[in-house]
Amino acid sequence: MESNSNSGKPSESPVRLKIVMIGAAKVGKSAIINQFLYNTFTPKPTVEKLRYIYIKLAGAFILVYGVNSNTFLEVKTLRDQIHSTKEAVSIVVVSNKIDLIKAEKEISFNHLFSDQTEIVILVGPKSEIRPKL
């Protein structure tokens, strides 16, 4: 805490947290960020130029997989790498593209994380994931 020179009372500094969003190519990471920040959906894929992750520097992770593909296996590998590097870390698993499959299949994907402490979120291109401010 810093001291406020005007009142002599301590003032709290905002907490800064580095959050890393990772997942396989074409699972919708950019679409989720655009939906969250700008409330827009653009179906145009982005090109991943480099995936270099600073696991040790991050305080939290968002792991994304597309439920219409086998990318959840890569998310499980990434999760294991994170847990082997950091003991206590916050992880949110995002199941994206739920609009492309049937409900019974999405449940079978999500049971893969049911024994973990991660939060699993299901989203699609029209999901309202932006907080109301």
Automatic annotation (TrEMBL):
What is this protein identified as? Ras-related protein Rap-2a
Q: Which InterPro entries match?
A: P-loop_NTPase, Ras-like_GTPase_Reg, Small_GTPase
- Species whose genome carries this gene: Mycetomoellerius zeteki
Gene3D superfamilies according to UniProt: P-loop containing nucleotide triphosphate hydrolases
> Which GO MF terms does the UniProt record name?
GTP binding; GTPase activity
* Entries under Pfam families matching the protein: Ras
